[in-house]
What does this fold into?
Amino acid sequence: QVQLVESGGGLVQPGGSLRLSCAASTTIFTINAMGWYRQAPGKQRDVVATITSGGSTNYADSVKGRFTISRDGAKNTVTLQMNSLKPEDTAVYYCYAQAKLFNKVNDYWGQGTQVTVSS
It folds into this structure.
């Protein structure tokens, strides 16, 4: 099983910055990719950024140039650096991991961390 632990959410003013971290804990599963999704009230859960085990990254158009996803420290930890935050970025942010055991691929989710951008 894969456990995802998130940290770094909070309240910031527009134009401010936050850094989210997610640590994946597993010794059996192979993690193919990790990323961050977000869900605002009344909205669907949408991808924000992903990164593969090889380091390839992908970003939603709405965050390109402002957010950066990277591996931080151990290979099972990813960081989302969020700059120039806007009120539209307010959402619950969920860490995501795609892990494989044998030939079975599963998706894993963190509990979510609230990011609020407001004056």
User: Anything to note?
Assistant: The chain has a mean pLDDT of 94. The first strand starts at residue 3 and ends at 7. The two ends are 40 Å apart (CA to CA). The chain is about 0% helix and 60% strand.
